[in-house]
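For homework, think about our next protein:
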Amino acid sequence: AFRMPSKLPPAVTIEGRTQIIMIRTGDLNSAKRTYWRAVMLAASLCAAVCAVATEAAAAGKKPHHTTGPTDVPKTPVAPSPAPNPAAASAAPSASDPRTADKQATAKLADAWSDAEVADARAHCAVVLQRIHAVALPHAPIREGACGAPAPVELISVGQNPQVTLSPPAIVRCDLVEQFANWVEKDVQPLARKNLKSAIVRIETMSSYSCRNAYGRKSTKLSEHALANAIDIGGFVTKSEKTAEVLDDWGMPLREIAAEAVARKKAAEDAAAKTAQASVAGNPAQVPLASAVPSTAGALAAGLVRSTIIEGVSNVTVASSWDPGTNVNRLGGPRAEAAAPKSAFPTGLKNPPPEMQAFLHDVHASACRTFGTTLGPEANAAHRNHFHIDTAPRKFGKICD
């Protein structure tokens, strides 16, 4: 500190601030000391002012952390562009719920989870322990909505005798249980009653197949697609008798009704031609009345039965299949292979009575056991086999 003189000295500007420096005449050393003291004071004031300004600027910004020395220049960072809402909506990110749902659905369509497979196999092991059946584990099947987590290849059911399935059926274990109990409790007693021999083989036509229900192009899946159904074409006894659904069922009622209608129409046409010929030979003669009573139509109408399948117009079948036709395909031979050679083929009207009785009794017993039972009376597509499945039904069972 120094004493201010009564007369102000010249002004000196140091670091942007004006400081008063006293210089006495003839005292150079004292003037130098005063000068350097003023310089030091100006530097202290400048440092204090800069520190206050720096703190004020830092108060309005977020702290910035550096990992290197303070005197190392930093690379400038370009500001990130503003988000574009339109682009975000057009291309959802991986965290978008819609993308996650699509990925989960695709994964579900490809394979069953390990937990689903483990639970189904554990359930299957319990089921197979309480019935008489030989079944081999099958790999999980998943084709979109079709398949089963733990299907089995059913080789045979029952014991003393064992009933083999030819070919083996790919089904779920719940169907195996119902099928085995049905064969032992219903099929075998009926075979011994009607055919005087036990069944040793069941001819299967299809089991698992990923497809819609018959006659439906865009509706629900068939139970075959869930491994819940078996199609049976015939039964073979120990005495080598074969009860074939196609040959030994007899004429379905709808075919009998159609035949009655056709006969009535043919008789009416014949009577009309006779009447026209008589009138041409004797104009004074009154036209003859129809020789066929009108009750034939009522009879036919009374024999018609409704089915659960719509859209089937072909009601006649062939007496035998082309040897080249694959009768093991789902639903039997294709429509073109099943085209009848005649409207009412012979050989199907009067099967052996014991065979016919056995098949009708077996069909009736299946209706009491399974959720759905279809046979020759349902439609032409089931003319050559029984369809049985375990579909749960809200309003009773379907039997046709």
